[in-house]
Amino acid sequence: MPAPAPRKNHKVLGRLSLPERTFVADALRTETVGGVLLLAAAIAALIWANTPIRESYESVRDFHVGPAALGLDLSIEHWAADGLLAVFFFVAGIELKRELVAGDLRDPRAAALPVVAALCGMAVPALVYTLVNVTGGGSFDGWAVPTATDIAFALAVLAVIGTSLPSALRAFLLTLAVVDDLFAILIIAVFFTENLNFAALGGAAVGLAVFWLLLRRGVRGWYVYVPLALVIWGLMYNSGVHATIAGVAMGLMLRCTTRKDEGEQRSPGERIEHLVRPLSAGLAVPLFALFSAGVAVSGGALGEVFTRPETLGVVLGLVVGKAVGIFGGTWLTARFTRASLSDDLAWPDVFAVSSLAGIGFTVSLLIGELAFAGDKALTDEVKAAVLMGSLIAAVLSGVLLKIRNAKYRRLWEDEERDEDLDGIPDIYEQDNPAYHLRMAEIHERKAAEHRRLAEVTGGASEGNDGPA
Q1: Helices (H), 280-321
Q2: Do the bridges between strand 339-341 and strand 10-12 make them parallel or antiparallel, or are there none, so unpaired?
């Protein structure tokens, strides 16, 4: 009986395949632009809410619109949080489905890293918040606020500071955020659902079943799915379950694998994500920020963020808990499994990205509203704490990324080098004999040109008649 083949070590944050690298690059471009718009919307909200015209902000935010007979007479703020964020979570559902069937989460061994890192990156902030409030005698209701990561905001910081970050590390942040979103969705569904309306919930379930059946039958046409999605969303909202869960459920139902026998270049999930992602990143999330981030901020209010246990727990959870949790989870995975860190990276690189995940913002603001829904003053203070914690995490990670950026640039140049000008980075062709033949021809041409130049200038010297 032949001996079993030895198990290979898995590189933690190793180099991506070329198709995966291309997908990640396309996704990051949209998320980065969305992050910039998100930042602009948050700044606009803070300015609007802290100037003499702040009453107009409150009037617009609290203005109610919608059919009351359908239970949808909501304020603009609620439409943004419950309606527009459903689009954001719909895209998150597609991302999660893609990772499960075609990405890093498909292989249980490869999935262990982002899953463990995300779990630790949520558990440690919750523990930090709880410890702070046990010590200070605060409310435990906000334990989930610092558990979320805002991928758009984080990638915007990454685009400005870490311009040459290796694609594998960027993909780690993206995959980590997808897993983080999944657990945030579960937290919202389990801990912030009260007074269930089983008739509406049953109607939403029937709507989702019809949605799934139409997809399996190959029915096409936005005029079919958009009205059905709106009905499902409305029923989910009235059921007592947070309406964003409807978006996630529909996203998970889309097929994210291609059918080569039918000549498909892109899966239906990828096509729809390509269409909806700009709407999510460019409109839905910035508008949510515009109507959620507008809290009154003064010197005294900022001082209270660091003295009240609920708000201090949020800040420390985002800044300390996220960095320690994600970095610790990654290190533990590498320490106690066969995974090892890629040779191109160092642990300070991982810590820099772990710190970047402390930017909570979008989902943290949403959970803050749900956790302290009955206390408007405390809700605003927690929002201010989310903004402060996210700002500190952004500055800290920005400094760390800036320090590491010189190394990142060298790695990026290695990944992007394309000396044979065939459109494929050389690093992906190193095992291809045809590539080595082309490179030999290129080097020979360069050597001949160098010799001719030396003969013309008369400055050729022994040992200097060709490239090293």
Answers
A1: 285-292, 299-305, 309-316
A2: parallel
CA–chain centroid gap for 72, Å, is 30
Cβ proximity of 310 and 378 under 8 Å: yes
Query: How sure is the predictor about 465, in pLDDT bands with cuts at 50, 70 and 90?
Result: very low
> What span, in angstroms and rounded, lies between the C-alpha atoms of 252 and 247?
9
N-terminal to C-terminal alpha carbon distance within the chain = 51
DSSP state letters, 59-118 = HHHT-EES-GGGT--EEHHHIIIIIIHHHHHHHHHHHHHHHHHHSGGGSHHHHHHHHHHH
- Neighbouring residues of 387: CB distance < 8 A, sequence distance ≥ 6: 42, 46, 293, 295, 297, 361
What is the token pair recorded at 91?
């895209």
- Which H helix or E strand runs over 11? strand 10-12
Distance CA 105, CA 116 (A): 12
Closest CA to 362 of 133, 34, 114: 34
Q: At what angle do helices 167-191 and 151-161 cross, to 10 degrees?
A: 160
Residue 306 has pLDDT above 50, yes or no: yes
Contacts of 179 (CB under 8 A, 6+ apart): 96, 99, 105, 114, 115, 117, 118
Q: How many residues does the chain have?
A: 468
CB 454 within 8 A of CB 464: yes
Q: What is the DSSP string of 324-376?
A: HHHHHHHHHHHHHSSEEE-TT--HHHHHHHHHHTT--HHHHHHHHHHHTTT-H
Whether 233 and 239 have beta carbons less than 8 Å apart is answered as: no
What is the pTM assigned to this prediction?
A: 0.73
Q: Apex CA 311: angle with CA 117 and CA 360, to 5°? A: 35
Residue for token digits 């915007």?
156
Instruction: Name the band, by pLDDT with cuts 50, 70 and 90, for residue 236.
Output: very high
Q: The tokens 């009351």 sit on which residue?
A: 68
Q: Which letter, b or e, does each residue of 128-150 get, where b requires 16 or more Cβ atoms within 10 Å of its Cβ?
A: bbbebbeeeebbebbbbbbbbbb
